[in-house]
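Weekly puzzle thread! Below is a chain. First person to post its structure in token form gets bragging rights.
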Amino acid sequence: MSNSRNWNMFILLCLCLGSVFRLIWVQDMEYKGDEAWWFHKSQVIGRTEPIPMRGLISASGVDNPGMSLWIMAALAQGFGLDTPTSFVRAIQVGAILALVVLFLFARQRLSGAERQQWYWGGALASVNFTAVLFSRKLWPVELLPIFSIFFLMAWWQRRNFWGAFFWGLLGALLGQIQMSGFFYAAALFLWTALFNRKAVRWPAWVLGSAIGALPLIPWLAYIAAGESGQRGIDWNFHAPPIGEYFGYLWHFMRYGRDWFEYALGTSWVSSIGNHEAEFARYPIVGGYETYLVFAARTLLLAAFVYIGGRLLYVAGLRCVPNQQKLCAHQVAKVLAVSPNSAECVSYPIRIDRHGSLVHTWAHAKPILAGWFLGAPALLDCGVPAAVCLPGKPGIARFKIWREAAAWNVVRPSCGDSSLPLLHSCELRGTRRRL
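Winning reply:
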């Protein structure tokens, strides 16, 4: 089976799974105060109520730009979405179609490693736990990923006029749909301006950005005015009492936990809110609370932590042989110039295959090192950056890494450490400040 066919089957599988996860049980959606407000406004704006210049107040205390409401009303009224479930269904279908477009773009316009990167990104977005969960939310935030896909596609084509134009246009619109889009667009702009600015049609980008920013003018005027009664707009700084900082620390720790659980798909916060303890008791069999839901969630979290820890552990151990091979190659280049003239004292430490530090001693005829550059890695790996060679003016330098470390060449047994035997030697050492 060819690699291309394997990718096609993998993509099709991810799309099918992502579509099923999104589309089943549409009634199982969150519908509280915010969702009811957005749905009501989407039905009455332009019909019985005037078109507003600003949207719903955000958690930061600043009103959202008006685009957040305009796009919801346009979607609902343009496609006749007159029930909450039909509205959510339209958002889900839009997300699926955007993923299809992403895969088609990668297939038609990219090749090699770049294509695989886009394939993996689309595959993860298709079955991502958090993306599936929030595809059942009735709010503008769920429209942001759809527009972000087209924004990223336009940025990828920034070398031509229309690619740069739509990159600027969509970048200006992202934050108006949901304010977090401002950060996404700004980050991509800054990276491009710093590292890839010569490849951009900047006049086209400026034109697109200017057109996209026109609907933002009323919101910018509202921010500049600093209207009273709105949290977060007062330009006067008031230091909070010291006790509030502990509350901020607690919220930060909670958000860190939620971020971790959202990524694993084990978070209940957005699904059942404050009913976590009640939900953990299920299923109830014969009137008895089994707590099997809580047990399953705990086992799943433990499994993810164990697998993640093992992957990091193995990845760290694999760094050692790769760096040792590079060290041996560099030392061989030095000894090739003068194989019998170098000597120093060795203090070896090795790391066994289980990851334990084992002190060993072996006498060899290593090289006299002047200045050393070591690897700034978790495990001490390095190579002499400079060695003194008799009869040679100055020092032959081999700058490999940045930190100081002492190194030696250790052979399994004592004897001559000539160049032919060096390839079977093992580099061991301990980091020391010189």
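Puzzle host: Confirmed. Bonus trivia for everyone else. Residues 324-430 form one domain.
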